[in-house]
Amino acid sequence: MKASVLRKPSGIETNPLQFSEVERPIPGTDQVLVRVEVCGVCRTDLHVIEGELPPWKSPVIPGHQVVGTVEEAGESAKRFAPGTRVGIAWLNRTDGTCDFCRRGEENLCDHPEFTGYTVDGGYAEYVAAPEQFVYAIPAGFPSEHAAPLLCAGIIGYRCLRLSGIQAGENLGFYGFGAAAHVAIQVARHWGVKVFASTRDERHQTLARELGAVWAGGTLEAPPVALDAAIVFAPAGEIVPAALGALRKGGRLILGGIHMSEIPAFSYDLLYHEKLIRSVANNTRQDGVEFLKLAAEIPIRTHVKVYPLSEANLALNALKNDAIPGAAVLRICS
Ligand SMILES: [Zn+2]
Ligand SMILES: [Zn+2]
């Protein structure tokens, strides 16, 4: 099969993904083999490719926002009939036995596998995944519009949930990429007012189009005190600025898997019972809840589609803020 393979982490400007012919995976007993239609491009892919996340498997096929159809199933995999359209996300598998899994916090599992990082992902014609971690994709979404829901969407939803934001409150978004452009639609559906701080003017424009009441530069102070804020951009210098924008008792949620160093800041910025919390992965429950909500609202994703052979181009564009919404790779039609 054809795949875009990472043999050695390197800056994306060196185009490290090699479009090549590799062995097609054979599904394990509890796995389904999925023929990949599209795979969303996520900033986490960039962190894997550039080596900001320590290499785990090499070579590796990145990609964890897979939409495709079930081609075949392992012996004990009976959940999806062949031909069913499904999605594969970042959380590939958990051990199901550690303290975290047992208390319902499988996103924090001690022995997890991650799609496109510790196991091969969806920048390929085929990918195998455990059927219990595979999602049914709601019928209303064309596949390229469904792909960004699987990470950007689900993680954004978990960020919103952990922010505790309520109808009528003011919510800040720092960075306005794939996750934020979905999360704002959920926030507005909940009656929340969104203030978007992002460095790129195209992203500010998209934020206003999607109903942000205000959009400004990354470190620009929003015009009101925020009840909560979510940092989507991987830049540590945002944290003190975002804390400064919160009201007393406000909550700051950090949505990324990687962030540059957070500069030292005065305790005054945190005082008055402000909270900072990171978000790590998601539970399957988050995924199921979010996909249901996405179909109800319905969420409309803005996507730019690239062929699989141009994965490097898509990732360079992502790094350069050149994608309003989300980038998606089209693999098989
Ligand atoms: Zn576990
Ligand atoms: Zn992701």
Describe the structure using short key phrases.
333 residues; binds zinc ion; seven-stranded mixed sheet; 17 strands; alpha/beta; six-stranded parallel sheet
What features would you describe in this structure?
- By secondary structure, the chain is of the alpha/beta class.
- It has 9 helices and 17 strands.
- The strands form 4 sheets. Strands 3, 4, 5, 8, 9, 16 and 17 form a 7-stranded mixed β-sheet that branches.
- The two termini are 15 Å apart.
- The structure holds zinc ion (2 copies).
Write the layout of secondary structure elements.
Blueprint: E1 2-6, E2 17-21, E3 31-41, H1 43-49, E4 66-73, E5 85-88, E6 91-93, H2 99-102, E7 113-114, E8 126-130, E9 134-136, H3 143-146, H4 152-163, E10 170-174, H5 178-189, E11 193-197, H6 201-209, E12 214-216, E13 226-231, H7 238-245, E14 246-254, E15 275-278, H8 284-296, E16 303-307, H9 311-319, E17 326-330
Parallel strand pairs: 10-11, 10-13, 11-12, 13-14, 14-15, 16-17
Antiparallel strand pairs: 1-2, 3-4, 3-8, 3-17, 4-5, 5-9, 6-7
This protein binds zinc ion (2 copies).
One zinc ion binds next to loops.
